[in-house]
TrEMBL record:
Segments traversing the membrane: 158-179, 199-217
Keyword Transmembrane attributed: yes
InterPro entries listed in its UniProt record: CoA-transferase_III_domain, CoA-Trfase_fam_III, CoA-Trfase_III_dom3_sf, CoA-Trfase_III_dom_1_sf
Organism this protein belongs to: Bradyrhizobium arachidis
Pfam family of the protein (one): CoA_transf_3
Descriptive protein name: CoA transferase
Coiled coil residues, start to end: none
Keyword terms of this UniProt record: Membrane, Transferase, Transmembrane, Transmembrane helix
Gene Ontology terms, MF aspect: CoA-transferase activity
Amino-acid biosynthesis listed as a keyword: no
Length: 404
């Protein structure tokens, strides 16, 4: 953003790892808060994850400063307690009992700073499950999301860590709400978000739908469609496109654009309810007609018809998407040897501010391990000799070349 960041002036200590915690942290950071990532002396293990998880660290840790502290030692815990004195928010997503053993729990830190907002992100909120460990995939299975995503008998997790991200977003909502309450009361508080409850919130409409139909909702691949045309089609050149006609106007324009005059006024296809009933015979014929055309021609006709449509893309193609490139929606982010190495356009926070429609920007590349330790400790009142002694004792660490 070219104007002042809306959360400028807020100080956040980020104990997050993997996705849910760092996701909350990057939301605060992108919106202007000073976010200090507190990681182990040898670095957040997320930096070293392979395969599907290889991009997690670079994506969720931009715009943050880093200090690497040995929290198992009293001297390391003392550093955190000192940093907490003027912090507004602490966030963590450790498993049950871990943060208590590190002497950095809500009960420990509220004594240091009663105005602190403490955001705890867990697998489950208060209840019989609260001491269980959890992962995104666990709660996708438990909540029914995986059941709804895969075909009958084959539950399938979503293709992105949607629950981790949603849990982080809800955590930020809770923390900002607590800050607003602090404006009124002068006191901080502990707030929590969770994976399981985030997933159940997402599925609420399906709970209601099951009650309406008098039984469990079928998985999405076996569902009875709510619209007559709402499907993926393969073009003659192998490209794929989703087309959705969700109103009578869509249907009429769709038929006009594709030259389906015989269907436009067919009484069997007048009204969405009739088109849904006709899917058994209509859809195979629609596929036959559409798949004779190349992808670009299909897309052009859909644009003319002003229906809902999209080619079926891959995530790697987002980094060169012309819409994102044109509107500040991609942040040129270092993905290895932070501060150097290749840059990848990572999607920005999906919000705009003001008449200028400013987007949150990239102010800092993802940090090296402990990259900002000296400035963070100096601002907290540590002298240069004290910092040198702590470094020599291994209380905090610095690594210039920790990989993504």
């Amino acid at each position: 953003m070219t104007s002042a960041k809306p959360l400028a002036g807020l100080k956040v200590l980020d104990f997050g790892h993997t996705i849910m915690g760092p996701c909350a942290g990057v939301l605060f950071a992108d919106l202007g808060a000073d976010v200090v990532k507190i990681e182990p002396v040898d670095g957040d293990p997320t930096r070293r994850l392979p395969g599907f998880a290889a991009g997690f660290f670079a994506t969720y840790n931009r715009n943050k400063r880093s200090i690497a502290i040995d929290l198992k030692r009293e001297e390391g815990q003392a550093i955190v307690h000192r940093l907490v004195r003027d912090a507004d928010i602490v966030l963590e997503n450790f498993g049950p009992g871990t943060i208590e053993r590190l002497k950095c729990s809500w009960d420990d830190l509220r004594k240091v700073n009663p105005r602190l907002v403490y955001l705890s992100m867990k697998g489950f909120l208060k209840g019989p499950y609260e001491n269980r460990g959890a992962l995104d995939e666990v709660v996708q299975m438990q909540s029914g999301l995986a059941y709804m995503t895969g075909p009958p008998g084959r539950p399938l997790r979503a293709g992105a860590p949607v629950i981790d991200i949603l849990g982080g977003v809800f955590g930020v909502v809770a923390a900002l709400s607590a800050l607003r309450e602090r404006d009124l009361t002068g006191m901080g508080q502990k707030v929590s978000s969770s994976l399981f409850e985030s997933a159940t919130f997402m599925l609420g409409a399906l709970v209601v739908g099951s009650a309406v139909i008098g039984g469990p909702m079928p998985p999405m691949p076996a569902r009875k469609n709510a619209w007559g045309v709402y499907d993926v089609f393969t073009a003659s050149d192998g490209g794929q496109v989703f087309i959705g006609c969700t109103s009578d106007g869509h249907w009429q324009r769709f038929c006009d654009a594709f030259g389906f005059g015989d269907w436009r006024d067919d009484p069997r296809l007048l009204g969405n309810a009739n088109r849904c009933e006709a899917r058994e015979w209509m859809l195979p014929e629609l596929e036959r007609r559409i798949t004779r055309l190349p992808l670009e021609e299909i897309l052009a006709k859909c644009e003319t018809a002003r229906v809902a449509y999209s080619r079926v893309g891959r995530p790697d193609e987002l980094s060169v998407d012309p819409h994102l490139l044109a509107n500040g929606g991609l942040l040129a982010t270092a993905i290895a040897g932070f501060g150097g190495g290749p840059l990848v356009g990572i999607p920005a926070l999906p919000v705009e501010f003001g008449d200028a429609r400013d987007r949150p920007s990239l102010e800092r590349q993802p940090p090296r391990v402990g990259e900002h330790a000296d400035e963070i400790l100096g601002a907290a009142g540590y002298s240069a000799p004290e910092i040198a002694d702590l470094r020599a004792a291994g209380i905090f660490g610095v690594s210039a070349n920790m990989p993504a």
